[in-house]
Fold this protein.
Amino acid sequence: MHVQEWLENIPAVSVYLLVGAVIGLESLGIPLPGEIVLVSSALLASQQGHIDPVVLGACATAGAVVGDSIGYAIGRKGGKPLLAWLGRKFPKHFGPAQVAAAERSFQRWGMWAVFFGRFIALLRIFAGPLAGVLKMAYWKFLTANVLGGIVWAGGTTAVIYTVGIVAEAWLKRFSWLGLVVAVLIGLGSMLFVRRRAAKAHAATESGTGAGAEAGTGAEKEAGAEEKPAAAPVAD
């Protein structure tokens, strides 16, 4: 069986369930490639007529909203010890630097960190559990969660599906040349994202280190100020 025939025989319901489950688990706080799965499925929908992009976007949105809500409940119940446990299990995703960066985003943006976090890989994993740990009002969380899920999941599906339709027609016209250009654009985008992520990670570690040094200095000064004066020597 050729690849094309195999793709055509994939049940649409399997694609819908896979997308909803992966995005839901990622939103819950488990580091999974939800965005990659969504983009790949949207591209598949653009090539295979039996996969409905509207249903696909709806399943992705539902997975995002439900997963974030469960993550919020777990974070609210588990508190800081939960983040410490996750840091031991997934040090690359829930290490001290990553947690500190996410907390700064919540302190700066409040409920909108949940909305904008949907578009950032690190915050997409953190948003639900961290909002619960920080005791964000649930109505604020739910509002930002639903809006973010609709815009991110629905928007990504619509954009990638449209690009896939256009790209298919374009590749048929320009054959191998279009394929080469598409590959180069994809590689360039991947390198750009990795470079930006590396810079952001370096800046986070630098800020965390500077904060620790400042805190150590402040503790020393406080200790010096609180040190009692020597008792006078009796004549």
About this structure: The chain has a mean pLDDT of 74. The two ends are 104 Å apart (CA to CA). Residues 138-226 form the longest helix (89 residues).
